[in-house]
Amino acid sequence: MTGANVGLGRWLRELARPWTGRLLLIAVAVLGAALLDVVPPLIARYVIDERITVGRTDGLAAAAALYLAAVAAAHLLTAAYGYAAVTIAQHTLAGLRHRLFAHLLALPASYHDQVPTGDSISRCTADVEAIDDLFSTTGTRLLGETVRLLTAVAAMLVLSPALTLLAVLIVPLLIPLTSYLRRRVRAAERDARSAVGTLNIHLQETLGNAETIRAFGAHSYFTERFRQALLGWLGTVNRSTAFNAFYAPGVSMLAAVITAALLWIGARGTTETTGITVGTLTAFVLLFARFFTPLIALGDEWQKVQAALAGAERVFAVLDTPAVRSRSSSCAAPARDRGSRFVTSASATTRANRCCKG
């Protein structure tokens, strides 16, 4: 594990620590939804083997009701832990934004001399928003899908260890593909986060000196400079998208190949030689589809995950920068105007001057 990953993990643990109790409840809800998710395939197995193949219709209504109840309960739990995760994420990120802003104000002047203002603005806005996407939706979805994968594998083992062994043959093919994708997309997203910072640098420098630029008639130069920075950002985003675009289709094709092999082997050897019934084969194929759902979801969300991790590296790099110990100030917190907005601009400058003089 690299030093950057260690530092990132430390900050993530610190952010999550105040919410440990609620996170445990979310984990319980995720596990409950995943367990309920394997019930429908097992009910399908029961209906096929115990009712349809023997020509019986009694108990079908009860099986249908149980099927519907399991699906409804799983979706309700999913909605509950999704909502809880979003609320925790928003409170956590609000605290992170405040902490980052306060830390930037406490950094020495040498830091602000070396780091352009536009880059600091990018870290406070675009990079934190990328983390928000991960914590609010993507992370919760991937967590739920991962637990569903584990419960699906457990149910597959119970149904048929032989078919499970055939199904997991795809894992050695996925490991190098996923590792390659992770490295490439992470590097591309780091470049994209830096490119966004460069765009904000150009915006801040150009708009802050608009009158001077007009006076010297330098519109074309600064417009072209911004266009070149924009093309650099576009290139990094396209590179990340290109790596990500081939993952989900590739995994889906591998899943289709394994599913076809399962159907072929299972149909040739049902009952007579392997003891695999039609219901068992049906339930196994349904569970195998659930096994691949999180893998495909990972491909769909991988770009957002890497963008968030790259943004987190930039944000936490600022927070890891030692701050200057400031003397205690008697300045009161800024008052709010009648519209409940903080007084800014000239009044903020005046307040800062008073604090410095005091």
Automatic annotation (TrEMBL):
CDD domains (UniProt xref): ABC_6TM_TmrA_like
The record's section on SUPFAM superfamilies has:
ABC transporter transmembrane region (SSF90123)
One of the entry's Gene Ontology molecular-function terms is: ABC-type oligopeptide transporter activity
Record's bilayer topology term: Multi-pass membrane protein
| Cellular component terms (Gene Ontology) | plasma membrane
Keywords on record = ATP-binding, Membrane, Nucleotide-binding, Transmembrane, Transmembrane helix
Entries under InterPro entries matching the protein: ABC1_TM_dom, ABC1_TM_sf, Type_1_exporter
What residue intervals traverse the membrane?
23-48, 60-84, 149-175, 246-267, 273-292
State the compartments where it is located: Cell membrane
**Domain ABC transmembrane type-1 positions:** 24-307
PROSITE patterns, alphabetically?
Answer: ABC_TM1F (PS50929)
Q: Name the Pfam families for this protein.
A: ABC_membrane
Report the domain of life of the source organism.
Bacteria
> What is the recorded name of this protein?
ABC transporter ATP-binding protein
The species this protein was found in: Actinoplanes aureus
